[in-house]
Amino acid sequence: MLVDAIAAERFRLLRDRSTMFWGFCFAPLVGFLLSVSGDLFLRFVIKKPMPGLAVGLVDQVIKALSNGASTFGALFLMIGAAAVLAGDYRWETWRLLTPRNTRQNLLLAKLVVVGEAVFWSLLLSAVLSALAALVGSAINGKTVALSLLDRNPFDIVGVLTITWLEAMVLAALAACVGVLSRSTMGVVIACLGVRFVQTILAGALRAMEQGPPSWKLLSMPVFDADLLRAALLAPDQLGDAGSSAGVALVVLLVWTAALTAAAVWLFRRQDLTKE
Amino acid sequence: MSIALEADRLTKTYGAVRALDEFSIAIPAGGVFGVLGPNGAGKSTLFRIALGLVRPTSGSARLFGAAPGDITALRKVGAMIETPRYPPYLTARDTLTMLALESGAKTADVGGWLERVSLTHAADRATSGFSVGMKQRLGLAAAFLTKPELVILDEPTSGMDPAGIQEIRALIVDLAKREGVTVILASHQLDEVKRVCDRVAILSRGKVVAEGGVAELTAGEARLRLTLASPLASALAVLGDRGEADGADAVLADIPRAEAPAVIRALVEAGAEIVEARWREVDLEGVYLKTLGQTPTATTVEGAA
Q1: What pLDDT shows up at residue B42?
Q2: Please, is A237 exposed, middle or buried when counting C-beta atoms within 10 Å of its C-beta (0-12, 13-18, 19+)?
Q3: Residues 6+ apart with CB under 8 A from B140
Q4: Is the pLDDT score of B106 beyond 80?
Q5: Which residue did the predictor score with more confidence, B236 or A10?
Q6: What is the mean pLDDT of residues A232-249?
Q7: Residues in contact with A205: Cβ distance below 8 Å, sequence separation at least 6, in sequence order
Q8: Is A149 on the interface with B (CB under 8 A)?
Q9: Cβ(A192)–Cβ(A220) under 8 Å?
C-alpha cells in the first residue's frame, strides 16, 4: 500500500538529520541569519538604517517564498531530494525495501515525502523571514505593517503553492535522474544545471519576445512559476502575458506528472543487481 | 501441496553471461529447502528475480502463484539477499520499525525480534557501526519480522561466529517447524544445508543438476565395502562391473541395499572369505562434488552393513 510506503519513508527521513538540516533547513536558516546580520551591520557598523520607515511582514514573507526555488534554494532542496530519491542506490538498500512493497509505491512514497519536506522547508522560510523582519524592525527602529504593497495573507498561500509546485517539477526530475544515474551527486548536478539553464534561457527569450509568451517560454517551469506569481501579485503589470497564466499552471502540473510517470516507468523496469 | 516458489524456463543473461539458463523448479511450501551451487551458479539471480529485484530475460517465476513484485505475494515473503545493508543513520530498532511500516505490519514485534537474534544490547546503536555478523542477525530479524509464509535467505550465517551460526540454524529450524514458515536457503556451507534442510537443489551454470531430499540424494550413492581374507579375484568375478578393488584386501560393490544379503551369499558360495561388510555412505558434499563433476575426497561416512 502507498500509505505504508509513505509512513516508512517519512519515518526514515525524520531520522536522517543530515538530510533534514542541509536539504530542508539550511537555506531558510541562512536567509534568516543573513537578514538579521545585515540589519545588525547597518545599525552598528555602518550606523545608517535601511531606507523606509516601515516593514511589511507579508511582503517579506512573499519575497522569501518567491525565492524558495531559486537556484540557491533549489541547490539545497535538491540535496535533500537526492538523499531521499537516490539514497538507496548509494547505501545499496533497495534489496531491503523492494521485497516489501511495489516499486511504484516505493518511488511515489519518496516523491510524496520530498513534497512534504519541501512544503515544510518553504513554510520555515516564511516563518523565519517574518521573524527576521520583526527583528530587523526592532534593530533599526522601524514600524511593522502587515503589508506596504496592499497584499494579504492569502497571497502568501498562493505564492507558497506556486513555489512548491515549481520545486516539485525539479523533484520529479530528480526522481528520473536518480533512477537513471543511481547517484545522489548526479541528481543535484543535473537538477541545478536544468534550473540554471532555464533561468538563462527564459530571461533571454523574454527579452527577445513581445506580446504573449511563446510556447518555448511557456514550456519552461521557471518562467511559468514567475508568470503565475506575477499574475497573483501584480496582474495589472503583466499585460498580454496575463492571459497565459492558466496555461502556465497546466504546464507546471503536466511537467510534474510526466516526469513522475517517467521515473516510475523507468524504476519498474530497472534491474537492481547491485544497487 | 501448494508451491511456494516456481520457476518455468527462467533465463537471465547479463551481457554474454547466462546466469540462469532455462531454469525450472517448483519448491513446495513447508520445510526448509536448500539451494546449493558454486559462485555464479545462479542462486542469487533466482532469488532476485523471485523478489522482483531483477527482471528475467525470458521465462517466468511465481511466488505463491503470483508474479514477482505483486503486492499479495510480497506480503507473504521475507528475505535476506546477500550481505544486508542498511541506511547508516538508522539504529537497529529504527531499521526494523521502518521495514515493518514499509510492509504494513504496524504491530510487528520489533523488540521481540531484536531479542531473538541477540541484538537487544545494540538496539539503539546506528547500524553503520555493526559488524558483518550483527548485520546478518539484523537481516534475519528483518526477514522474519512480518510473520511471512516464506522466507528466502541467501547465505544467512556468513560472517558469523560459530556460536551465532548454531543459534541462527536452530532459529531457522524452529521457525520452519513450529510456525510453519517455508524457508528457502542458499548456502555454501554443505554442513549447514545438511543440518537444516529437508530438500535440496544443486545448481550449476544456471540449471538444476540434482534435486531431492537430503537422505534421498545421498542414499543412492552408498556402496558396500567388503574386506576379504581371500584373494579379490573371485569376489570381483561375482560382482562383475558392479564391483571394484579398494586397496589390496577389499572390494566396493555398487548395489542396492536390498540386494546385499543375496550378493554376500553369492560371494561366500564362490569362496570369498568376508571379514567385514560396511556401507560406505557418501554425504551431501560427496553428492555435491560428484554432481558438479569434481572428485569427492575425504567426504565419506561409513556405517555397518
Answers
A1: 85
A2: exposed
A3: B80, B117, B153, B156, B168, B171
A4: no
A5: A10
A6: 82
A7: A214, A216, A217, A223
A8: no
A9: no
| Separate counts of helices (H) and strands (E) for chain A | 12, 2
Q: In 3-state terms, chain A is what percent helix, strand and coil (to 5)?
A: 80, 0, 15
CATH number for the B3-217 domain, one of 3.40.50.2300, 3.40.47.10, 3.40.50.450, 3.40.50.300?
3.40.50.300
Instruction: Specify whether the CB–CB gap between A232 and A170 falls below 8 A.
Output: no
Alpha-carbon torsion, ordered B236, B241, B245, B250, to 10 deg: -60
| A273 occurs within a structural domain | no
φ, ψ for residue B6, nearest 5 deg: -130, 130
Interface test with B, best of A98, A106, A275 (most B CBs within 10 A): A98
Portion 212-271 of A in contact with B at CB < 8 A: 269, 271
Q: Which residue of B has its CA nearest to A10?
A: B98
Mutate to test the interface with A, among B76, B90, B102, B184 (most CBs of A within 10 A): B102
Which single residue is written with the C-alpha cell 531454469? B23
Chain B nearest C-alpha distance from A22 (Å): 15
List, as one string, the DSSP characters of A8-25: HHHHHHHH-HHHIIIIII
How far, rounded to the nearest angstrom, does the alpha carbon of residue B274 sit from its chain's CA centroid?
39
Which residues on chain A are in Cβ contact (under 8 Å) with B94? 11-12, 15
Structural domain that includes position A131: 2-268
**A243-247, A258-262, B285-289: least confidently modelled range:** B285-289
If one counts the domains in chain A, the total is 1
Distant-in-sequence, close-in-space partners of A20: CB < 8 Å, separation ≥ 6: A13, A14, A80, A117
Which pLDDT value is given to residue B288?
73
Cα-based torsion angle of the residue sequence B267, B269, B274, B280 in order, rounded to the nearest 10 degrees: 30
CB contact under 8 A, B53 and A101: no
Q: Look at B53 and A271 and tell me if their CB atoms are within 8 Å.
A: yes
Q: What ipTM goes with this model? A: 0.86
Check pLDDT > 90 for residue A168.
Answer: yes
Render pLDDT for A61-109 as a digit per residue (tens, 0 to 9): 999 998 887 888 889 999 999 999 999 999 999 988 988 899 999 999 9
Higher pLDDT, B218 or B212: B212
State how far the Cα of B28 lies from the Cα of B243, in Å rounded to an integer: 38
Looking at chain B, the whole-number percentage of residues with pLDDT higher than 90 is: 16
Q: How far apart are CA B58 and CA A159, in angstroms?
A: 51
Which class would CATH give B222-304? alpha beta
Is residue A161 within 8 Å of residue A69, measured between CB atoms? no
Please give the pLDDT value at position B256. 81
